[in-house]
Amino acid sequence: MGTCAASWFDSAHALHIRVYSSDGYTISERCNDGNGWTAGASFPGSQASVTVWQDSQGEHIRLYVTNADVTTEYCNDAGTPGWTKGGYTQP
What we know:
Elements: E1 2-9, E2 15-22, E3 26-32, E4 37-44, E5 47-55, E6 58-67, E7 70-77, E8 84-85
């Protein structure tokens, strides 16, 4: 089991927190955007790491999930609904 987290302040200075936890088989996302915790997406995998940054378009979240020795990048970008698979490839 493991946990990773990311946080940021939006342009209105509101705090956003994302926590990703593993039960060994699934990564579960929990979200707090100022109104309490809610369940987010889930991803197959046992390990995860996350990074977030902001630019003029808004926030960009990259979640890297490892499942069966293969790491997949998931992307969540401002203005784009939901998560998409990114272009990260393992060496």
